[in-house]
Design goal:
Blueprint: E1 11-14, H1 22-25, E2 31-36, H2 40-43, H3 46-53, E3 58-62, H4 71-84, E4 88-93, H5 95-107, H6 115-119, E5 133-137, E6 149-154, E7 159-164, E8 172-175, H7 185-203, H8 211-233, H9 238-251, H10 265-277, H11 281-295, H12 297-312, H13 318-335, H14 352-363, H15 376-385
Parallel strand pairs: 1-8, 2-3, 2-4, 4-5, 5-8
Antiparallel strand pairs: 6-7
Helix pairs in contact: 4-5, 7-8, 7-9, 7-11, 8-9, 10-11, 11-12, 11-13, 11-15, 12-13, 14-15
Length: 387
C-alpha cells in the first residue's frame, strides 16, 4: 500500500429534517452569503427551510451559479463578499454550487489574478486566507460536500479546470435524502453515473495491495448498480434515497483513493466535452470512460478482470472477462439512461479530438492516468473512438 495522509474535517450531518441544525452549525453572529443556483430551492421549499433556520443572522443572497459554475459569475460573488464583509458562505445546491463556493472562498484573498488558481492549479492550503463555508446538499452526485476539490468553467475560453486544497473542505454539510424527491429524472440519472465513474477512476487502475480500498470501492459500485435504476423511478423511497446520497459522498470523500493509484484521465477528457458542447458532466464520463478502458486495455486488463469477476460475476480468461466487463459497464450506463457516443449529443464533432489534444499540449498535460501513459496520441484515439 502507498504512503498516505487522510485528512477530512467536514462535519457530515445526515438525515431527515437536519436543515434546522443550521442555527447551531453556522458561527454565531456571522454575516452570511447565501449562494445558490436557479429557482429550484424556492419550488421545493428548501430556501424557506434554510432562511427559517437562520433567523437572526444577517444574510446576503447570491443566485445564478450555473451548472458547471462560471468563473465570470463567481467573480461577481467575490466582489460582494469583499464589499459586504461576509464572514461565512452557505452553499445551497449540488456540486456546481458547492464548487463555485469553494472558488469564492479560496479566491477572495488570493493575491493576483484569480484565474491563476485554475490555470496553474494552485493549491489553497492556508485556512487563515479563506472564507469558511458550509453546504446544504440538494443534488447528490459529485461528493463535493465532503472533499476539498472543485471544478470551474472559464466561459470566455471554454475551459473547465479543476483546483483544490486542504483549506477548501466545507466546515459542515447537511445532507437530507428527502431533497431528491423533487429532482428531475435526468439529474438523478446523472448523479448515479457520476458517482459510479468517480469510483472507477480510483479503482480501475492496476492490481495493488490496497485490499480494503478495493472492497469499499466494490461495495459502492454494487450499491449503485442495485439502487441506481430504482431511485430514478422512486426517489421518494427513503431507503433508496439515503443509500444513493451516502454512496455519492463515499465515492469521492477521499477514503477509497488513499494508499492506491488513481486515474482521472476520463474526467480530464470529459471536462473538455462539457466546456466545448455543454454536455452534462456525467454523460461525458459515460462517453469517454469505456473508450479509455479499451485504449488502455493492456495496462488495465488485470484490474478490469477483477472488476468483471467481483462486480458482474463473470467467468473465463482474464482477457475475456476484462472485455466483457467493459461491455457490462456500457450496458449499465444505458440502463441509467445514458447515451455513450459523442454523436448522440453533437452533430459537428469531427475536430473534437484535435481541439482537446491541442489544449492538453498547451497545458503540458502530456501524460495522464495512473501510469502517465495516457499520452496525447492516446487522448486522440480515445476521443475519436468516442464519436
Amino acid at each position: 500500500m502507498l504512503n498516505f495522509q487522510y485528512y477530512n474535517p467536514t462535519n457530515y450531518v445526515f438525515g431527515k429534517g437536519q436543515i434546522e441544525q443550521l442555527t447551531k452549525l453556522v458561527p454565531a453572529g456571522a454575516k452570511i452569503l447565501l449562494a445558490y443556483g436557479g429557482g429550484s430551492i424556492f419550488k421545493n421549499g428548501i430556501h424557506q427551510q434554510v432562511t427559517d433556520a437562520l433567523k437572526g443572522f444577517e444574510i446576503v443572497e447570491f443566485s445564478g451559479i450555473e451548472p458547471n459554475p462560471h468563473f465570470e459569475t463567481l467573480l461577481k460573488a467575490i466582489a460582494i463578499v469583499k464589499e459586504q464583509k461576509i464572514d461565512f458562505i452557505l452553499a445551497v445546491g449540488g456540486g456546481s454550487v458547492i464548487d463555485g463556493v469553494k472558488f469564492i472562498s479560496g479566491a477572495v484573498n488570493y493575491e493576483g489574478d484569480p484565474a491563476e488558481i485554475l490555470r496553474k492549479r494552485i493549491l489553497i492550503t492556508d485556512n487563515t486566507k479563506v472564507i469558511p463555508f458550509g453546504t446544504v446538499l440538494t443534488l447528490p452526485a459529485t461528493g463535493s460536500e465532503m472533499n476539498s476539490g472543485a471544478v470551474v468553467t472559464i466561459a470566455a475560453t471554454q475551459e473547465k479546470l479543476a483546483f483544490g486544497g486542504s483549506a477548501l473542505f466545507p466546515k459542515f454539510s447537511i445532507c437530507d435524502p428527502t431533497v431528491i424527491q423533487s429532482l428531475p429524472r435526468r439529474q438523478l440519472q446523472n448523479g448515479v453515473v457520476d458517482a459510479y465513474t468517480h469510483v472507477l477512476e480510483q479503482y480501475l487502475t492496476y492490481v495493488h495491495d490496497g485490499y480494503l480500498q478495493d472492497r469499499i470501492a466494490e461495495g459502492i459500485l454494487h450499491t449503485l448498480i442495485e439502487i441506481g435504476p430504482k431511485v430514478v423511478e422512486n426517489p421518494s423511497d427513503y431507503a433508496l434515497a439515503s443509500n444513493f446520497m451516502w454512496s455519492c459522498t463515499m465515492a469521492l470523500n477521499g477514503l477509497i483513493q488513499k494508499g492506491v493509484p488513481n486515474d482521472w484521465a476520463t474526467h480530464m477528457i470529459g471536462h473538455e466535452l462539457t466546456a466545448m458542447y455543454g454536455i452534462d458532466h456525467a454523460r461525458t464520463l459515460a462517453i469517454v470512460g469505456p473508450n479509455l478502458y479499451q485504449a488502455l486495455f493492456e495496462t488495465k486488463k488485470d484490474k478490469l478482470a477483477q472488476y468483471g469477476r467481483r462486480i458482474f460475476n463473470l467467468t473465463g480468461t482474464d482477457e475475456a472477462v476484462a472485455q466483457e466487463a467493459i461491455a457490462h459497464t456500457v450496458q449499465f450506463f444505458h440502463k441509467m439512461g445514458m447515451e455513450t457516443k459523442l454523436s448522440d449529443y453533437v452533430k459537428d464533432y469531427k475536430n473534437t479530438a484535435e481541439t482537446i489534444v491541442s489544449r492538453f499540449k498547451e497545458r503540458g498535460w502530456i501524460g495522464l492516468g495512473e501510469r502517465q501513459n495516457v499520452t496525447l496520441e492516446k487522448v486522440q484515439e480515445i476521443v475519436e473512438n468516442s464519436y
